[in-house]
Amino acid sequence: xxxxxxxxDLAIFGAKPAFEERLHVGRPNIGHREHFLERxxxxxxxxxxxxxxPCVQQFERTVAKFLGVxxxxxxxxxxxxxxxxxxxxxxxxxxxxxxxxxxxxxxxLQWQGITPVFCDVLSSTHSIDPERVEASITSRTTGIIxxxxxxxxxxxxxxxxxxxxxxxxxxxxxxxxxxCSHQGRMIGNFGRAEVFSFHATKFLNTLEGGAITTNDDExxxxxxxxxxxxxxxxxxxxxxxTNGKMNEISAxxxxxxxxxxxxxxxxxxxxxxxxxxxxxxxxxxHILLYDENEKCNYQYIVVEVDEAASLLSxxxxxxxxxxxxxxxxxxxxxxxxxxxxxxxxxxxxxxxLPVTEKLSRxxxxxxxxxxxxxxxxxxxxxxxxxxxxHSAMIKERMGKRI
Length: 402
Ligand code: T4K
Hints:
By secondary structure, the protein is of the alpha/beta class.
């Protein structure tokens, strides 16, 4: 059997993986290539490459319409978008964020001299736990940043209630959540502002890119100026700004991806359902479920490997997958609180973050997206099933290598 012979050749036992055969997490979704190239040609013909050009304007209008939000401000990446929104909301002192997120969420605060206060997450959704948020508020707290991790919405209402009662700003890192909804309303409309990432690895990509969305006219105007050095017209700078502009080629990629979004979702949903079918009933393995009554982008296949019930640990399973050229990833490991500069500032932070600590030890992200289909998922699932049913042999061979 093909899977068996591949497994017997595990690279951890000495075989060399063929680079071009690797199955990655995060392979970009690429829309209609010809449409993209036509747009690029038009951009080159017009010789308008950046600085709020026609493609960026069209991209912003299209995204705002799709999300049903008043303003979309396209930016060069989501990290800068977070920095802009945080500054425009005048957050200072301490801001409460989850530690179980990509480190950019925390860095966007620290970069501006604001202390990210790490808060634990809910084990059900992997998003920030409102009860823990409330307990983390101090006299220095000015805001909360929720992260809709994996495109699964935060408990938005509970967070809004806390922000309202305690006089705090609330915004969301929606880097993973383009095309997702919460109670029928598109993500992009919650809090004072929301930030999307259009990085190559995201559901919708602009190569590199991001956007801030808001229904607040004043806030939008201020962020627009900030992303363009603080210019409020020719020769007139009215505030401290930066260069956060999206370029035209990126916007062209975004417009092209938007045309194919329904296909991306359908493909991702098929992949998700196949993984559910193939991996169901394996001891100690849980796939994070999406609420199919909401709009989802299904961009992430997130597996929890239960340390107590599984026959292999998450890291052992990952080693087997990597040996078989399946580059599953430990997102988000370790938690931000264990990364610098945060670990040195608060070496004991983990004591208050038991769910984060557990998730960072047990979560594994598997390849999906439009570059992965039925045969790849079948192969990945077979490798996982084989590994779990031959765990003793795998452990023994791994032990011998050490
Ligand atoms: N907030 C959250 C919650 C985020 O997840 C992120 C980004 C941000 C904020 C900040 O957004 P941006 O400022 O980036 O717009 C990757 C991405 O670089 C990062 O955007 C993403 N989150 C994070 C979760 O993943 P790395 O360091 O893990 O990337 P890397 O180079 O290891 O690539 C990841 C996988 O994607 C690999 O398997 C290879 C594959 N890949 C990657 C690229 C760039 C491709 O197949 N093709 C490609 O072109 O951070």
